[in-house]
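Schema walkthrough. Field components (list of strings):
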Amino acid sequence: MSDLTDLTLAEARDGLRAKQFSAVELTRAHVQAMEQARALNAYVLETPEKALAMAAASDARIAAGEAGPLEGLPVGVKDLFCTEGVRTTACSRILGEFIPGYESTVTAKLWADGAVMLGKLSNDEFAMGSSNETSCFGPVISPWRRDGSDAAIVPGGSSGGSSAAVAAKLCLAATATDTGGSIRQPAAYTGTVGIKPTYGRCSRWGIIAYASSLDQAGPIARTVQDAAIMLKSMTGLDLKDTTSFDAPVPDFEAAVKRGVKGLTIGIPKEYRAPGMSAEIDALWERGAQWLRDAGANVVEVSLPHTQYALAAYYIIAPAEASSNLARYDGVRYGVRVDGKDIASMYENTRAAGFGREVKRRIMTGTYVLSAGYYDAYYVRAQKVRALIKRDFDAAFANGVDAILTPTTPSAAFGLGEKIAADPVEMYLSDIFTVTVNLAGLPGISVPAGLDAQGLPLGLQLIGKPFDEETLFAAGEVIEQAAGRFAPAASWWR
Amino acid sequence: MSVDATTVRRIAHLSRIAVSDADVPHLEDELNSILAFVEQLGQIDVSGVEPLTSAMAMTMRLRADEVTDGGYAAKVVANAPVSEDNFFLVPKVVE
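Field assembly_structure (string):
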């Protein structure tokens, strides 16, 4: 039998159903792959015993004819999801050895559907970053390398542990979260598929909060079909999250083969930013052509306020973060650093516990919310956010079914190349993805090609609210035309 | 708008983050870089635009005002750095 880690999630599911192998065998293969890949630093906590126990329980359910939709399928979990009894840190020192007494709704749904947990995956500290270099466990290394080079490449962020693990076949799929592009950008950087569903699709309950009006969970997987299977199990109304939306959960997998015949795909002219590389431009045009060839009508659309999205994001997200992260005060969980009084205890704890990027965002957020600046920064950004959403509403009202853009302005950069520079440099890698969070829309990144140095590039499709099905259908057309992409060699073993 | 060293210290205190003298200059530079970047929002005419506070228009769900969870204080304080008799302990606040 070929290596079980080479299977897609759908193939593994079908193989388990056909009893070609057991869930324990499948899990053991992934545990071994995980243990051999420590050079990538993708997992911050491996839970092999738990995985094998869950797999054994899955085998019993399969034998009893009670298999769930994800029965026996080993997945990784971003360390932003609280997992009951299993250390959860958001990759921040401030949470120390925090052991949640509860399970996030999204992961609880995965386990209820039979999935097996392999361990917790790294992310940028509190999901603040675009390269996974701000994790307190150290950077994650992408399984990808430039042609003829062994220089370390970033896996993207903040879900860099998830993207690296999926690309390196250290799990069949992984959970991730996306506040400004943290699912789609790492997916694009690693040749994987990532979808951020509509705001409200996935419950945020039990997911460590960064910016609550933007945060959404979603999967990273190796194929569009696998992402659809995962998303179906992750979504649904949850009364524990007041922003969880009461909408029916469609059969996303059934939408994958629907095709795009007769659909109208918009190309936003403002995304063709001056200075965009010819390579990205050509990729984008190729993607549009694939959709045309499959029967879609491709039209130009205008999203005039999209150019301001990143600036609005870097006010709104830090503002919400400064409020959300106020809870880390050395009292209820995590580390405490004593001081001469309670205020200095808070200050010392937070100085020692938060990393540099997190402090920068908390302070930015505190500033834009402070007296005298609130209207000039925060309220203005919220108004710009309304205008950005209005642009999308107008495009969809004109009959556009989905919008095609590049996912990122370039392929992944090298480790250390941007982290030391001006923070705004790093922020620019999310320029095509943040608009989607501000407007609350669903967005998917699908691998579409390689750059001149052999690194993967992705295309993004943006959909109407609660119309992830069209994204899966159009994403599948791109996947079929572009093919799948995997790192050339398993150099990390 | 830009921040100076005094403002950086004030924001740090409001954020309850201790900063050393050595931290102030680079924090000042970084915050000013971010503020310069977001300055472009000033170019947009936002007159008559209502701020967007919710990504998806939704009505907040209400439920009956009753206890639906709880009764496990030991579990709640389990991760506290210092606790006693199921209470969180903090340095003395009131003399």
